[in-house]
């Protein structure tokens, strides 16, 4: 997720585009009556109401000075976990079952955790059956998470959904046994 910061009401009025953790960025259009200025590089800035098309690089130091408080108040980024299943079941593999304490630790770290569990399957068999199986996987995983520490995790904080054999982690043709596609994705916010 690209972060755009704007500073107004001070001596400097500008917008800066910050890169994602992996270095990628989105794009931002700063629009004025005279035209538009496009920001598409990390730490690229443009004055609000300044000359159209004119951009400048903003240093980390300047970003910290101008936006440090806002950045510190930003919510913590979500953390995702992938857990895998035995063929045709909603039973976790032993390695994935061993990862449940990591999920619990992340949930406990957050003051008010929001948890989503999305079930997936490989492309083996019927798509409708796979949709139901992926929902079973999401449901049983949510139940396991809830049982890890009921005092911390309430059921209303866990949402579940099913993607079936859509959104494959590893693209495969139909009727392909791919263990990495038999998964749930747990996101903790």
Sum this structure up briefly.
This protein folds into 2 domains: 3-73, no CATH class; 79-188, OmpA-like domain (60s Ribosomal Protein L30, Chain: A). Helices cover 27% and strands 27% of the residues.
Describe this entry's structure for a reader:
- Helix content is 27%, strand content 27%.
- The chain has 2 domains: 3-73, no CATH class; 79-188, 60s Ribosomal Protein L30, Chain: A (2-Layer Sandwich), CATH 3.30.1330.60.
- The protein is built from 4 helices and 10 strands.
- Strand 8 (115-120), helix 4 and strand 9 form a beta-alpha-beta unit.
- With 189 residues, the protein is an alpha+beta fold.
- The two termini are 14 Å apart.
- The protein has a 4-stranded antiparallel beta sheet with strand order 1-2-5-6, covered by helices on one side. A 4-stranded mixed beta sheet has the order 7-10-8-9. The chain has a two-stranded antiparallel sheet with strand order 3-4.
List keywords for this structure.
189 residues, alpha+beta, 60s Ribosomal Protein L30, Chain: A, 2 domains, 4-stranded antiparallel sheet, 4-stranded mixed sheet
How many domains comprise the coordinates?
Answer: 2
Average pLDDT confidence is: 91
- How is the largest sheet built, in terms of strand order? 1-2-5-6
Main beta-sheet strand count, sense and barrel state: 4 strands, antiparallel
Intertermini distance? 14 Å
Overall, the morphology is: elongated
The CATH fourth-level homologous superfamily of the largest domain: OmpA-like domain
Helix content: 25-40%
Strand portion: 25-35%
Number of helices: 4
Radius of gyration: 22 Å
The third-level CATH topology of the largest domain is 60s Ribosomal Protein L30, Chain: A
Low-confidence parts, pLDDT < 50 over ≥5 residues? none
**Total strand segments:** 10
Q: Supply the CATH class of the largest domain.
A: Alpha Beta
Q: Order of SSEs, N→C?
A: EEEEEEHEHHEHEE
């Amino acid at each position: 997720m690209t972060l755009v910061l704007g500073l107004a009401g001070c001596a400097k009025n500008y917008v800066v585009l910050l890169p994602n953790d992996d270095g990628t960025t989105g794009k931002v259009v700063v629009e004025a009556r005279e035209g538009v200025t496009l920001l598409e590089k990390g730490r690229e800035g443009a004055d609000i109401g300044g000359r159209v098309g004119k951009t400048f690089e903003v240093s980390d130091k300047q970003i910290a000075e101008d936006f440090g408080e806002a950045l510190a108040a930003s919510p913590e980024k979500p953390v995702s976990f992938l857990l895998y299943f035995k063929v045709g079941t909603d039973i976790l593999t032993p390695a994935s079952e061993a990862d449940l304490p990591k999920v619990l630790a992340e949930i406990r770290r957050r003051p008010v955790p929001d948890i989503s569990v999305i079930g997936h399957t490989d492309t083996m068999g019927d798509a409708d059956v796979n949709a139901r199986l992926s929902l079973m996987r999401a449901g049983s995983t949510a139940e396991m998470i809830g049982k890890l520490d009921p005092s911390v995790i309430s059921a209303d904080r866990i949402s579940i959904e099913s993607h079936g054999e859509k959104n494959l982690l590893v693209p495969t043709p139909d009727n392909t046994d791919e263990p990495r596609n038999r998964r749930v994705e747990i996101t903790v916010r």
